[in-house]
């Protein structure tokens, strides 16, 4: 598409959030590599160009540097974090390494604002270098609490040192809106409905008329929306869904979800591969190994269940953008946080071609897409459940005993959240079984049993998250139920870590 916004990806974990915010505002946007040629950028006829943040310093020998002057000849430019430092350096200003780095919450004081937000704005920062002097002819219009330039503007560009794309920045969306509307004079050209239309068109264009798809189902929202989307695009007879019981699902999950899939009208086949998965995971404790083993085993199971016909040439997965950006860098120089079982772990001898219709979307966009496709609210509103399942919630080695303990405890936790009306207020809640034992007293006797950690976070898109502030009475009640009803647990703790610095899952 043309007449939208081009975002040059310099490797930030948050780059796709910029595109998502602009789409929410009604403007089409897409990511391209930071070094894409100016000729290719011109073909898109962008209304504006955005330089993302990134993990590099402009002083690094291998820093992703490009000529920003040629970009200013194409369209107005907005620099974010690393993008501001790059603009400053390339236009003749001065960037230095800060003695006091700025990470997390900060307050920015504006002498003039770009839109409707407080002149003392609460923002989210993540940088080690700072702008010491703006380029000649440019103005510093905001300062951080550390007295570093936080926003500058000049001929044809604006730049901010913080991240307006994250939900932790108050008024951040207004800064992006002002850039699009006031600075670039862009008109709205994007809506949620277009995601569904575009996805259906792309699937039909990619999958040949005589080709069929096998779709891996995990029981979660992402893979179910993928299967529904494919079925609508190609028809039920051309999409075979395989729902695998890995032995790593929650209590009664396989039976309950199979019933739901049948109600949705999917062409679904259930496969019990629990012994195969648990056998492959025997003795494995490292989370990266777990994820890769599960990814490979999933593919093997799908291949083993392929019909004896050459028509099935595609494998569909419900991969989302947060999975991708944490696992590999799709366009820029982002840092791998952790591998996801469905990203980059496919065996080299895979005979199926890969199709991932949701790869550029966030969870809330997927939920909106699911509603557009007619999926019931009771399913769309389910908390995210990782593809590797309980394998990454049993920290350490996976055993039948550990899984049984965790399934019972997790079921109690979720049941209490639903009974108290808390479930829908939380983005994701789950329990983790820790690989440690502690001394306890139960029934007037000494116990030496396992520790269970409870996790609950609020989020919009899963890229950043805050822990949910429960009433202590609720936590006490859940802890009491678990330690009374689940043999093998004598201590329950609650995780009060945000993302960042932690991730939502423990592994």
Task: Describe the fold and architecture.
- This protein is of the alpha/beta class.
- About 30% of the residues lie in helices and about 25% in strands.
- It contains 15 helices and 18 strands.
- The protein has helices spanning about 15-25, 40-45, 70, 80-90, 170-185, 190-205, 220-235, 255-265, 275-280, 285-305, 320-325, 365-370, 375-380, 400-420, 470-485, and strands at about 5-10, 30-35, 50, 75-80, 95-110, 120-135, 140-145, 150-155, 155-160, 210-215, 240-245, 270, 310-315, 355, 430-440, 445-460, 465, 490-495.
- The protein has a 9-stranded mixed β-sheet, sandwiched between helices. It has a 5-stranded parallel β-sheet with strand order 12-11-10-13-14, sandwiched between helices. Strands 15, 16, 17 and 18 form a 4-stranded mixed β-sheet that branches.
- Strand 7 (about 140-145) and strand 8 (about 150-155) form a beta hairpin.
- Helix 9 packs antiparallel against helix 10 and helix 14 (about 400-420) runs antiparallel to helix 15 (about 470-485).
- It starts with a strand and ends in a 13-residue tail after the last strand.
- The relative contact order is 0.10.
Q: What is the compact description of this entry?
A:
The protein has 507 residues and is an alpha/beta fold. The protein is 32% helix and 25% strand.
Task: Give descriptors for this structure.
nine-stranded mixed β-sheet, five-stranded parallel β-sheet, about 500 residues, 18 strands, alpha/beta, single chain
Write the layout of secondary structure elements.
Blueprint: E1 5-9, H1 15-24, E2 29-33, H2 38-43, E3 48-51, H3 69-72, E4 77-80, H4 82-90, E5 94-110, E6 120-133, E7 139-144, E8 149-154, E9 157-160, H5 172-183, H6 192-206, E10 212-217, H7 221-234, E11 239-245, H8 253-264, E12 268-272, H9 274-281, H10 287-304, E13 312-316, H11 321-327, E14 353-355, H12 363-372, H13 377-380, H14 400-419, E15 428-442, E16 445-458, E17 466-467, H15 472-485, E18 489-494
Parallel strand pairs: 1-2, 1-3, 3-4, 4-9, 10-11, 10-13, 11-12, 13-14, 16-18
Antiparallel strand pairs: 5-6, 5-7, 7-8, 8-9, 15-16, 16-17
Helix pairs in contact: 6-7, 6-12, 7-12, 9-10, 14-15
